Amino acid sequence: MKNTKLKVVTKQEAVSYVTSGSRVFIQGAAMTPNTLIDALCERYNALENVEIIQLHTEGKALHADYPYNKAFKVNSCFVGRNVRGAVNSMNGDYIPIFLSEVHLLFKRQILPIDVAFIQVSPQDQHGFCSLGTSVDVTLSAVEAAKIVIAQINPQVPKTHGDGIIHMSNIHYAIEVNSPIHATGSGDLSPMEEAIGQYVASLVEDGATLQMGIGNIPNAVLANLNHHKRLGIHTEMFSDGILPLIEKGIITGEDKKVKQGKIVTCFAMGSQKLYDFVDDNPMVYFKEASYTNDTKLIRKNPKVTAINSAIEIDLTGQVCADTIGKYQYSGVGGQMDFIRGASLSEGGKPLLLCLL
């Protein structure tokens, strides 16, 4: 494989390759390339009808706000706080789709990608860069995009798994040196603590866990200090697992898929979490098409899927992504793991709702 240097350009030149009518993919979560996004928004007067395809992103999301939304339209496969207003207006759309199937939109050219904005680590001695903490659907978007533009950042963790791309697959790059997006955990309410204690009592030794981000999953994890041989196969994780790893409670020794490894497609939390995943072979980052594949999830023992809902009615019907007609989040991977857990031997799909 030819080992050539990355073509490093200014941010202004990098975003000049986006033209009117383009469809632009933006990597999400902690890896959101905001320098590229902001530079693109500076060109809004010269552009029109640019579609932004994304999952959850962090930062201001200027492209979703006035006056930039005159040139850009958000088309999101998951809805975060920074684009909820746009998605619920005439300036944005939401695609209801399982996270396990988003990659098919790109691979099957249902939504052809003109340009992909990503953030990666600097190249190693072999010319490879890491997609850091957000592999999810990014790898598929990179493979499908006509032009790949990267934000090279030495503060991006170099993660193990499938999120490795060669610099020859990056057409243009800019250089930045800034922390990736970090989140903290808030104080637990008495209700959240009570839910955490109860749900933890349902988790068996040797279980394989899937959990989301937020106070309730953290409350559950905080009450697993006396468990044994727990494993992780999830779409994402945060800081709550770190004390359990340090205490030898999370070992993954009973798992069937990637025994002994934490399997995920993205991670988001504090700098301590990013330091933990950096060059750590215990953590294996895969595409969402792998982590959220029901056939693989069900192979693990006692899969315990811990997810939240907005509303649950008396007949057991669950609403987890909308508030009335208001699109609040998205389908995501919840159904992938609920089904996977229900098919796992001894599995338990759990849905938690604060009243």
Characterization of this structure:
There is one protein chain. This protein has helices at residues 11-15, 34-41, 84-87, 102-107, 138-144, 190-202, 215-221, 242-246, 271-277, 288-291, 294-297, 334-343; strands at 23-26, 50-54, 72-76, 92-94, 115-120, 128-130, 147-152, 160-161, 164-166, 172-175, 208-211, 231-232, 236-237, 262-264, 266-267, 283-285, 303-308, 311-312, 318-319, 322-323, 326-327, 348-352. With 355 residues, it is an alpha/beta fold. The longest helix has 13 residues, at 190-202. It is globular, with a radius of gyration of 20 Å.
Low-pLDDT runs: none
Mean pLDDT: 95
Q: What share of the residues does DSSP label as strand, in percent?
A: 15-25%
State the CATH architecture of the largest domain: 3-Layer(aba) Sandwich
Main sheet: which strands, in order across?
A: 4-3-2-1-5-7-10
The number of helical elements comes to: 12
Structure characteristics:
12 helices; alpha/beta; 22 strands; Transcription Regulator spoIIAA; 21% strand; 23% helix; Glutaconate Coenzyme A-transferase; 4-stranded parallel beta sheet; 7-stranded parallel beta sheet
Task: Summarize the topology.
Elements (H helix, E strand, L loop, with lengths): L10 H5 L7 E4 L7 H8 L8 E5 L17 E5 L7 H4 L4 E3 L7 H6 L7 E6 L7 E3 L7 H7 L2 E6 L7 E2 L2 E3 L5 E4 L14 H13 L5 E4 L3 H7 L9 E2 L3 E2 L4 H5 L15 E3 L1 E2 L3 H7 L5 E3 L2 H4 L2 H4 L5 E6 L2 E2 L5 E2 L2 E2 L2 E2 L6 H10 L4 E5 L3
Parallel strand pairs: 1-2, 1-5, 2-3, 3-4, 5-7, 7-10, 8-16, 11-12, 11-17, 13-15, 14-16, 17-22
Antiparallel strand pairs: 6-9, 18-19, 20-21
Helix pairs in contact: 6-7
